[in-house]
Each structure stands twice: as structure tokens, then as C-alpha cells.
Write a structure and sequence with these properties.
about 375 residues, alpha/beta, Aspartate Aminotransferase, domain 1
Length: about 375
């Protein structure tokens, strides 16, 4: 369901049909500044926002490397664990069942037990498990205990509301290839004034040059009028991001979020109508950008997945090889519905293909039951 690069860049290429003027760098600065202004609206912040060139993981590592020091305790989920270990921090892993959301109560129990927690680092939207953690509630606990809050919004940004300032988030990073619907390579990242205070008062220097948030702030402050990024970035990706953000604003952020919510409901109800169970334990935490589904015993998942891919030209998450490589994906599959794929035509064609592949492997399903559910909700 993810559009290819040619589709994403079609509008960008057409807009750049004229030769660039001699003052092209000045044009880029204006483009970059508009991108940052629009990103702030999506983050829900009046504070600092930067673009790092890299994958979504670069944002997670920049967050941890810049803010956390060796030996500091951080409540963490599995997404931040390796980054914390890499800098010598002391992660305290959240213990939860598969498909279980991280709640404020879980975090508060740890904060009551441990008296010297520095920060909480968790995903807003758990892509692997198809759930959205209640960051608004978690943020209240973070405020209560005066700990910093670091959020991974890679698969929620642009599809699920984020209120950086209102929720009191300290660092939040995302990525360009999910709900923003452009190729990977850019990391929007927002930083609070409390995070800056912690960074500026570190005992140890930040052990990175490229993933050092101070580097980005200094570049913006000193060279923003002609080179707002400290390192080489991709003008093409930045222009693509501008196109994407302008489309979001033209549709209206609330309308965008409602579209994602309605699309997600259609996908969930479609798979449930076929007798499948969602991976998320409590459906109120279901993600609006990706749905994770439990695979039933007794049916050939490998045949099903390969039929979808080779016969019906649809790729869903969790290919069979991934089941063995990463246990978190075992016995489940995922359907992405974010950005431009959170629309009726994408969802209907995908659910139709899933329905056909299920019939092909003799799964007991009535033809049309899944697609009829999608049409009833999205038409």
C-alpha cells in the first residue's frame, strides 16, 4: 500500500520543470523555512523544530545521545533500548504483554519504586503491535514526577494527533516515509526548552557530531539565512516534504486525523468480520495508522502471504521470514493505512486481495464479507 518514489515525486518534478535561478540557495532557504513552520503545526509546538537527514532511527538516537548521559536511568520500551545501552545509560524496561499498551499506571509504578529516574522514552504509535500509547496520560505522570519525556512518533506524525506543547513532551522525532507519504530520508524532530536546559547542563560532552541536537541549533542560529542545516541534506526530499505538508494543511489537520481514524475502523471491522482477532489487547488503544492481526492456527500463512504478494500484487507487513527473525512479529500480520494509503481505494483494493488470498488457502470466509464492511464504513 506504500506508493512508489515515482508517484511521490511526480508533483515535485513537475514543479521544478523550469531551470533553477542563480539564487537557488535563497529559494531553498525559503522552502526549508516553510517546511519548519508547517512541521511546528503538526507537532503542535511553538518551540524548536529541525530536520535531520537520515532514517527514523537517527531521530531516536539523536534524542537519546543528546539528552541522556551515561549512568542515567530511563524508563524505556524496546524501541529505545539499544540506543540507551549504546551510550551507557541504565534503561528500565517496561514489562507488558504482547499487544498491551503502555499506560500511565505502568510508568507510575516504576517511578514510585525508583527515585532517580531521568526520563521516559516510549513510542507514541507502536507499529509492530498496531497500538497507540496514551501519551497525553503518560505526560501527566512525567510532569508529576518531574521527569523528561522522549517520544518516537515515526508512524503517528501526520496521521494521529500530537500535542507537543500541551502534553509537555521534551523531544519528539518522526520520519518522512510513513504518514507524510514521501520516501525515507528526513527526520523532523522537536525539542522543548526543558530539554535544552538538560542538554546545556550536561556533565559530559554529547558523544556525537552528526546526531548532536546542539549542532542543529547552532547551524540554525548562525547560518540559518543561507544554510539552515549543519550537514548536507536532500533538497528534493525537502521539497517533497513541503508538497506533503501543504496537502495536509489544505485538507485540514483535523480532517486528516478523522480520515485516518475512519480508515482504521474500516480495516479493523473488515478483518474482524472474517473471524480474525486484533493483536492489540484493548481496542481503545488501536492504532489509526496500522492494524496488527493475529494469524489463526491451522492455516498456511506462508502460502497466504506469498499469494498476496505474487498473485495479487499486495504487500502486507510481517512476511514469513520475519516471523523467525523477530519474535515480536510472529503469528501476526500488519496492514498499513497511513498518509495517502488511508483512503477508500487503497484500503478496498488491499482488503479485496486479502479476501481472495484467504479463499485461495481454503480459509472459511464468505466472498465479499470483508469488502462489504469496508464499503459500508468508507462509502
Amino acid at each position: 500500500m506504500i506508493p512508489g518514489p515515482s508517484e511521490c515525486f511526480q508533483e515535485v518534478l513537475s514543479s521544478m520543470s523550469e531551470p533553477p535561478p542563480a539564487h537557488y540557495m535563497d529559494d531553498f532557504v525559503a522552502i526549508y523555512d516553510e517546511v519548519i513552520t508547517l512541521l511546528k503545526q503538526v507537532f503542535g509546538t511553538r518551540g524548536d523544530v529541525f530536520l535531520i537527514t537520515g532514517s527514523g532511527s537517527a531521530g531516536l538516537e539523536a534524542s537519546i545521545t543528546s539528552l541522556i548521559e551515561p549512568g542515567e536511568k530511563v524508563i524505556s520500551d524496546e524501541y529505545y533500548l539499544k540506543f540507551l545501552q549504546a551510550i551507557g545509560a541504565k534503561p528500565i524496561m517496561l514489562q507488558r504483554g504482547r499487544g498491551e499498551a503502555i499506560t500511565a499506571d505502568m510508568i507510575e509504578k516504576i517511578l514510585r519504586r525508583e527515585q532517580d529516574i531521568c526520563a521516559i522514552a516510549v513510542a507514541h504509535n507502536d507499529t509492530a503491535q498496531g497500538l497507540t500509547n496514551p501519551i497525553d496520560e503518560i505526560s501527566e505522570v512525567a510532569k508529576k514526577y518531574s521527569v523528561l519525556l522522549i517520544i518516537d512518533a515515526v508512524s503517528s506524525f501526520g496521521g494521529i494527533p500530537i500535542k507537543f506543547d500541551d502534553w509537555g513532551i521534551d523531544i519528539c522525532s518522526s520520519a518522512s516515509q510513513k504518514a507524510l507519504s514521501i520516501p525515507p530520508g528526513l527526520v523532523p524532530i522537536a525539542v522543548s526548552r526543558y530539554a535544552w536546559e538538560k542538554i546545556m547542563n550536561r556533565k559530559n560532552p554529547i558523544p556525537s557530531r552528526y546526531l548532536n541536537l546542539l549542532t542543529y541549533r547552532e547551524a540554525h542560529e548562525q547560518y540559518g539565512s543561507w544554510h539552515p542545516t549543519p550537514f548536507t541534506t536532500s533538497p528534493t526530499l525537502v521539497k517533497a516534504l513541503l508538497v506533503s505538508l501543504r496537502k495536509l494543511m489544505a485538507e485540514g489537520l483535523n480532517n486528516v486525523y478523522e480520515r485516518h481514524a475512519k480508515t482504521a475502523m474500516a480495516v479493523r471491522e473488515a478483518v474482524k468480520s472474517a473471524g480474525f482477532k486484533l493483536l492489540v489487547m484493548d481496542e481503545k488503544y488501536s492504532s489509526n495508522t496500522v492494524t496488527a492481526v493475529r494469524w489463526p492456527d491451522g492455516y498456511d500463512y506462508r502460502k497466504f502471504w506469498n499469494l498476496l504478494y505474487r498473485k495479487y500484487n499486495v504487500m502486507i507487513g510481517n512476511p514469513p521470514a520475519q516471523w523467525e527473525a523477530w519474535p515480536i512479529f510472529k503469528d501476526s500480520f500488519r496492514i498499513g493505512h497511513m498518509g495517502r494509503t488511508a483512503m477508500r481505494d487503497y484500503v478496498l483494493s488491499t482488503i479485496s486481495a486479502i479476501e481472495k488470498a484467504l479463499i485461495d488457502i481454503n480459509y472459511p470466509i464468505k466472498k465479499g464479507v470483508m469488502t462489504e464492511m469496508v464499503e459500508a464504513i468508507l462509502t
